[in-house]
Design brief:
Blueprint: H1 13-26, E1 40-42, E2 49-51, E3 58-60, E4 64-68, E5 71-78, H2 85-101, E6 112-116, E7 120-125, E8 133-136, H3 145-154, H4 156-171, H5 186-189, H6 197-205, H7 207-210, H8 215-224, H9 230-244, H10 262-275, E9 282-287, H11 293-308, H12 310-314, E10 316-322, H13 330-348, H14 357-363, H15 365-373, H16 383-399, H17 401-416, E11 419-425, H18 432-449, E12 452-458, H19 459-465, E13 479-481, H20 487-501, E14 506-510, E15 516-520, H21 521-537, H22 539-549, H23 553-565, H24 571-580, H25 588-597, H26 627-637, E16 651-652, H27 653-662, H28 667-679, E17 683-685, E18 697-700, H29 702-710, H30 714-723, H31 729-741, H32 747-765, H33 772-775, H34 787-799, H35 802-813, E19 819-828, E20 831-836, E21 842-846, H36 856-861, E22 867-876, E23 881-886
Parallel strand pairs: 5-6, 9-12, 9-13, 10-11, 11-12, 21-23
Antiparallel strand pairs: 1-4, 2-3, 4-5, 6-7, 7-8, 14-15, 16-18, 17-18, 19-20, 19-22, 20-21, 22-23
Helix pairs in contact: 6-23, 8-11, 13-17, 20-21, 21-24, 22-23, 26-29, 30-32, 31-32, 32-34
């Protein structure tokens, strides 16, 4: 039997391509070459090249080109079964030679040629006119010697080793280091600032308001600091009506009847309850993670239902289950959920002792009644025997979670006339498969135990799969979209509530300069309200907060907490607001610095609100600082296009990987960094479970798009410079020295570090052994990130500040080891202040330190106006002057 298809089924050239060559490329070794979709470029996207000479000259592209890390390694040409292979093989060789000509000298990238018409298959080298292997269709067998040789030459492993070898050679013995790594060990690199005492106190004393965890905490928030919205308010009435539809008859609304057979009457009423619960509802709350779905359910219960309809509220049995703790195995989750509901009911009715036999009899009233009517009636004359048999039945019922839960739910309906409402909190934090499993569990729970179920679900999952099983069974009228509240209004409301409950006592705080100040608690809260006002006033800063939070209120509050506690936010800045009030302003760069570093002295992309898009791994054969930015850029460029499901911006990983590896990125690194970006919420992946697979769908998020915009932000670029691996030791050392001796938020340090980083990256990218323009047609290619835009942004930032521009131009002009004439201006205590080269540029030289090589006798003789021959050592950022070494 043929490996891929029978020879008689290969009729056209298209059959050769689709039924024979492509399966051969994709099949895992030893059956095929084991290539990935993203490594196979088809003729639809390949660039035509002019091949051959004279009358034979023509434009041509092959059927397939295998490119790994941007390096073309294998050309494949298909012909119809009735065509000779010689011409196709020759064309493929000529094309490969043209491709190789676009690469640097001595790099023979594309080495292998395969041509096939289905009947015959030839394989050879680019620089040899004749093939080295000739196979017929029947040779494609894993036991055939020729086939094994073909796979050995052109397998994925062989081609990958070929591509990797060039990058290994490029790296050579280079040691990649980050500037911050030169400052000391991990303790120094991870050094924390002393937290802002104002912010620390505010957050610590009110943590249950900023981050409510218990049901009581959430109740306090919805009653005192809830932010309503018209969209959410319109869901209230439909949910209320849906619950009211299942309202059970209560004793309060019933008429007492006299009867000699009360058990039969109770049974009749129980039957009515059973008949009233056939179609209990499943309601979906749709929204992104942190949009307020949990808070909305509490608001509905406490602020709406209990306030406006207290009688109905009293007849609702709310059961909140935290699904964060749920197992995701089909075999475990059902039993786990049943036990959680049982525990919740017992906790709600903690006035009852569920171990007491009297309560057990009430819970299992129906079971006992059935026993007494049935076989138990045979034991009516023997209490001991009856009790023994009844014990067996009840013991089994209690041990069996199915029967126990069913009995408990019926017990609260029958005895309290309550509607069970199960809320499955935190289901939206799970991946697509787990969310769909939660939906199936919710449907089962609703149908099996006759209760209303409220299930939160991530909007991306619902919108993508709402027309497919199992979501296609949802009643659309019971789907409610929860829009997130305005983040700054949420913060304002919680601070207002804190103000209302805060005592008028004072706390003493110690400022940076050691001064002690007494601040009333109410005044302290006002300062943080001014921070919110300052954020609102600055559109760029407000934009940062909103887009970092990405409609996730929990994240937004955490960002604000970290901001308030950061040691980069000085107490003196907060105290200044006491004077300025609503006119208080905080410079944008100060906000950026706090958001970038949180409470760390040095930037760390893994711990920051902003990921370092230029981070790379030292252990890679050639550290790649561009892959993260290129991933986001590709997804940003396609966000307005419809993907395979019809959703805009949602594309398969294989398509993204195919484009990116043409730029020179390793496929393994692409997948690794894509998973990292997904964990950091810069990329939305339908399958948040790892590892990411080539068929998964991904799209850029709001924070992801913000990060691309930050590539033109000088504060961000400067921070990344601290945490990026540099091959160029000179550049790395310059940045490290600035961090060692000067504040990282100094405007001059920020500008120089940002500029050094971008210039280095532009040069480093030139080392990549790829020329995507030579491989792929213009229509098919999405350009990589252009760092010239970043460089232009840095230059604009410098040009906007005259003092900064002047200082940097001086630093650029007076380079290290440059000989200069220094004119003495003044001298004092062994030091000399001078101007350099007839310019208004400050220099300094001292006779007290050996590094200046300035003799004491020369110092004693010189006077203002004298000229000293010197050499530039370095620029002193603290004193804004050049340190000079004396020559004569």
């Amino acid at each position: 039997m043929a490996l891929y298809c029978e020879l008689e089924n290969i009729i056209t050239e298209s059959d050769v391509e689709q039924k024979f060559i492509y399966p051969f490329l994709k099949a895992e070794t030893p059956i095929g070459l084991g290539l990935k979709d993203s490594e196979i470029l088809t003729k639809h996207i390949l660039r035509k090249k002019l091949i051959d000479k004279g009358q034979k000259q023509k434009y041509y592209f092959p059927d397939y080109l295998v490119a790994i890390r941007g390096i073309p390694t294998l050309i494949l040409e298909a012909k119809a079964p009735n065509e000779l292979l010689a011409n196709g093989y020759s064309e493929a060789r000529l094309y490969a030679q043209e491709v190789n000509a676009s690469f640097p000298h001595k790099i023979n990238a594309c080495q292998y040629i395969i041509a096939s018409n289905g009947c015959e298959t030839w394989m050879g080298y680019v620089d040899q006119a004749e093939p080295v292997l000739r196979l017929i269709h029947s040779d494609f067998n894993i036991e055939n010697k020729l086939f094994c040789e073909l796979v050995e030459h052109c397998s994925h492993e062989a081609l990958l080793n070929l591509a990797n070898r060039y990058y290994v050679d490029l790296r050579g013995n280079a040691r990649f280091n980050s500037p911050v790594s030169q400052l000391g060990g991990k303790r120094v690199q991870n050094e924390e600032m002393v937290e802002n005492s104002f912010g620390r106190t505010l957050v610590f004393e009110n943590r249950s308001i900023f981050d409510p965890e218990t049901e009581q905490d959430r109740t306090v928030i919805v009653k005192n600091a809830y932010i309503p919205s018209p969209k959410r308010e319109q869901h209230i009435e439909p949910i209320y009506k849906e619950i009211k539809r299942f309202d059970l008859p209560s004793r309060k609304n019933s008429t007492a009847l006299s009867t000699e057979t009360p058990v039969e009457l109770v049974d009749k009423l129980s039957e009515k309850i059973l008949n009233n619960q056939e179609a209990y509802s499943l309601m979906l709350l749709i929204g992104n993670v942190g949009s307020g779905k949990t808070t909305f359910t509490r608001y509905f219960r406490y602020a709406f239902l209990e306030e406006k309809y207290p009688e109905l509220a009293a007849r609702c049995e709310w059961i909140f289950i935290n699904m964060n703790l749920a197992p995701v195995s089909n075999n475990e989750i059902y039993n786990w959920l049943k036990k959680q509901i049982i525990d919740s009911i017992k906790e709600t009715h903690n006035d009852l002792d569920f171990e007491d036999f009297g309560v057990i009899k009430r819970v299992f009233r129906r079971e006992i009644s059935r026993f007494d009517k049935g076989l138990g009636s045979l034991l009516c004359g023997s209490d001991v025997e009856r009790n023994r048999e009844l014990y067996k039945i009840l013991n089994e019922a209690i041990r069996n979670v199915d029967s126990y839960l069913e009995a408990l739910l019926f017990f609260i309906k029958e005895n309290y006339a309550k509607i069970p409402i199960v809320v499955l909190d935190n289901c939206d934090k799970r991946n697509k498969g787990e969310q769909l499993l939660m939906f199936e569990v919710a449907q089962w729970l609703r149908a099996q135990y006759k209760c209303i179920v409220i299930l939160p679900m991530r909007d991306a999952t619902y919108d993508t799969y709402k027309s497919e099983p199992p979501l296609d069974t949802v009643v659309r009228d019971l789907v409610f979209r929860i829009d997130p509240p305005d983040l700054l209004r949420v913060l304002q409301a919680r601070l207002d509530y804190i103000t209302r409950i805060t005592e008028q006592s004072s706390n003493t705080y110690i400022l940076e300069n050691g001064m002690r100040v007494a601040v009333k608690r109410s005044e302290l809260i006002e300062y943080f309200k001014y921070i919110i006002v300052a954020i609102r006033k600055d559109r760029w800063v407000a934009n940062l907060f909103y887009r970092l939070a990405d409609k996730n209120t929990r994240n937004g509050i955490q960002i604000f907490e970290d901001f308030c506690k950061s040691g980069h936010m000085k107490e003196k800045d907060i105290l200044a607001m006491r004077v300025l009030g609503d006119d208080a302003q905080i410079p944008a760069y100060r906000f950026e610095n706090v958001l970038l570093r949180k409470n760390r002295r040095f930037y760390n992309g893994d711990e920051s609100n902003f990921v370092n898009l230029f981070a790379s791994d030292y252990n890679d054969d050639f550290p790649d600082p561009f892959v993260r930015a290129d991933i986001l850029n590709w997804l940003y460029q396609v966000q307005a296009l419809s993907g395979p499901t019809g959703d805009k911006g949602l594309f398969q990983v294989s398509e993204l990987a195919r484009s990116l590896q043409v730029y020179g990125h390793s496929l393994a690194v692409i997948y690794r960094e894509l998973a990292y970006l997904a964990r950091k919420n810069l990329v939305l992946c339908e399958n948040s479970a790892m590892p990411i697979e080539e068929g998964d769908l991904v799209k850029i998020t709001i924070p992801g798009a913000l990060h691309l915009q930050m590539l033109r932000n000088v504060s961000y670029l400067s921070a990344c410079a601290e945490d990026t691996l540099f091959k160029n030791t000179e550049v790395m050392t310059r940045i490290s020295n600035r961090l060692k001796f000067h504040e990282s938020d100094s405007k001059l340090v920020v500008a120089l570090n940002a500029r050094d980083l971008v210039n280095y990256l532009i040069e480093y990218r030139k080392e990549y052994l790829t020329n995507s323009d030579e491989l792929v047609s213009e229509k098919a290619i999405i350009s990589s990130v252009d760092l010239n835009d970043s460089l232009h942004a840095v230059e604009q930032w410098i040009q906007a500040d005259e003092n900064l521009k002047k200082t940097i131009s001086e630093i650029d002009y007076f380079t290290v080891d440059m000989d200069v004439d220094a004119c003495v201006v003044s001298k004092n205590s062994g030091g000399v202040v001078c101007t350099i080269a007839d310019k208004d540029v400050k220099g300094f030289i001292s006779s007290l330190e050996p590094k200046y090589s300035f003799p004491r006798d020369v110092y004693s003789k010189i006077k203002p106006g004298d000229i000293l021959k010197c050499k530039v050592m370095e620029f002193d950022f603290t004193h804004r002057s050049f340190q000079l070494k004396y020559l004569n």
